[in-house]
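== Sequence and structure of one protein ==
=== Format: two labelled lines per protein ===
==== Data for this protein ====
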Amino acid sequence: MTEGTAAGAEGATTPASLDASLGVRFGDPALREAALTHRSYAFEQGLPVNNERLEFLGDAVLGLIVTDLAFTQFPDLAEGELAKLRAAIVNMTSLAEVARELKLGDFVRLGKGEESSGGREKASILADGLEAVLGAVYLDRGLDAARALIERLFWPRISAYARGEGERDYKTILQELASQDLRALPEYRIQERGPDHQKEFTATVFLGGRELGRGVGRSKKEAEQQAAREAYHKLSSETVARGA
């Protein structure tokens, strides 16, 4: 891929337009190209490089900078609250939302199978692609440029979370809390009732066989979020009680 050729769906976008969206001009276009190359495309084309290594690097850079921002900007937050803030910001859902705002899906190079199955809208591909781009920016322009970009993209979410505004991804927060503190993963069980046009879903979340939360919603996702929220608050209260 050279400057001026399409990076995503054919004819849709150009590398220069991605640089414009990011506010960063790559000095080494090969890094940008690697960051946008999904493994499915690399396999089909026989390319030796995909974006997985850059994704690994970008994940570390993002985690460091978000942690540093939270630590320096919110000196009153305890360690546990800082960890929850980071988990709420550095997760697949949040990353995919930012990637969609950047229209990153238009630039990613996908294999035919991923392309035909809607890969440009898959949260996992978008989140991984954004992390790879951040890793590429770090290598190409350095830590200061990566920090400036990450702060611009993620600070609105960080500050909103710290103020208690906006919807929190309680499923992700609960999973992080459970894996760190309990070495277990949440299990969701779904029940549904009502006619197709007016379904109501009830989700119950278990950890290690113990029921911790229940939620009701008009979709499975909404019900699971409500259940995860209840479980998270219950676990948080128990953690505070143990520390008292």
Observations:
- The longest helix spans residues 220-243.
